[in-house]
Amino acid sequence: MKEIALVADLHGNLPATLAVEKDIRSRGIERIWCLGDVVGKGPSSAETFDWAEKNCEFILQGNWDEGIGNRRFPADEFYYRQLGERRMQALRDFPLEYTCVISGRKTRLFHGRPAMPLPYYVHEDYELLAPYFAPDYNVVGYADVHRQGVRLLGFKGILFNTGSVGNGLGLGAAMAQYAIVRGETESEAPAPLDVTMVTVPYDGAQAVRDAEEAGKRGLRNWDLFIKEITTGVYARFQGAPRSPL
After folding, report:
1. Would you say 35 and 7 are in contact if contact means Cβ atoms under 8 Å apart?
2. Mapped to the 3 state alphabet, what secondary structure does 1-18 carry?
3. How far is CA 239 from CA 10, 75, 100, 244, in A?
4. Rounded to whole angstroms, how far apart are CA atoms 204 and 175?
5. Structural domain includes residue 238
6. Residue 193 belongs to domain spanning
7. How far apart are CA 245 and CA 199, in angstroms?
8. Contact between 20 and 50 (Cβ < 8 Å)
9. pTM of whole model > 0.85?
10. What total number of domains does the chain contain?
11. CA dihedral in degrees (186, 136, 162, 1; nearest 10)?
12. In a 3-state reduction of DSSP, which class is residue 171?
């Protein structure tokens, strides 16, 4: 069986990203797919973008990628300067979803928003989540909500959320999250399929120092980012409108 690491929501947190890479490599996993939001929130968006571009077979567009790539928020000039025009164009060009067959199951992968209108957790009502299996998908994987989960959605199939590499919530301080899918990717014949949730500790103190330094250079809401990575609890943004995660 082939193993694929699914990462998402790196959010400019380089220590978390490097810790996840080390864990993936230690397991002998060679394939990495990225479900979006490689930038935003944290201090090192250029570095996490470059890491994803170098290591991932594909990168899907997340809501922060779309918002930053299209310069939707004038106050986010820090990211625009840091990323530069080539990366900004790439953010705009990322596809919204990826579909494939794994172990005979038709599989759909996307970030969440902008494909979803709102960030939905895996335990939301059936009626909200069932449409993402249309017309005939057996597995749906996504990110965006920064909290891992796996669920059998009625008679539709497997629904899972990768969690967040750089802004993981719900597990306490400095815990990165990603998922591993094990299955047969070279054949459409039915075969075993595993979905595993992985959590990895990382150097939270370094991530805090990185954010504090970036705050001096214009990173907006660096203090809220620190609060989130040190507590694992979402600090709702208090200010001008922007995406809630």
Report:
1. yes
2. CEEEEEECCCCCCHHHHH
3. 23, 11, 40, 11
4. 8
5. no
6. 2-231
7. 19
8. no
9. yes
10. 1
11. -20
12. coil
Among all chains, which residue has been given the structure tokens 């201090």?
43
Q: Which amino acid is at 167?
A: N
The residue assigned the tokens 């399929």 is: 193
For helices 45-55 and 14-26, give the axis angle rounded to 10 degrees.
20
CATH number of the domain encompassing residue 41: 3.60.21.10
> How are beta strands 105-110 and 139-142 bridged, if at all?
parallel
Q: Which of 229, 237, 233 is nearest to 43 (CA)?
A: 229
Q: Does any domain span residue 237?
A: no
**Encoding tokens for residue 232?**
């694992």
Sheet strand arrangement including 139-142: 97-102, 105-110, 139-142, 157-161, 149-153
Single out the residue of 174, 235, 210, 168 nearest to residue 42, CA to CA. Answer: 210
The letter for the amino acid at 24 is I
CA 154/CA 5 separation, integer angstroms: 26
167: tokens are 């802004």
In a domain, 81, yes or no: yes
Which of 59, 142, 159 shows the shortest CA–CA distance to 105?
159
In three-state form (DSSP H/G/I as H, E/B as E, the rest C), the secondary structure along 190-237 is: CCCCEEEEEEEECCHHHHHHHHHHHHHCCCCCHHHHHHHHHHCCCCCC
Residue 245, domain member (yes or no): no
The number of residues in the chain equals: 245
| Helix or strand holding residue 34 (H, E) | strand 31-34
Which segments of the chain have a pLDDT < 70?
A: 237-245
Q: What element of type H or E holds 161? A: strand 157-161
CB 219 within 8 A of CB 212: no
Q: What is the C-alpha separation between 175 and 231, in angstroms, rounded?
A: 10
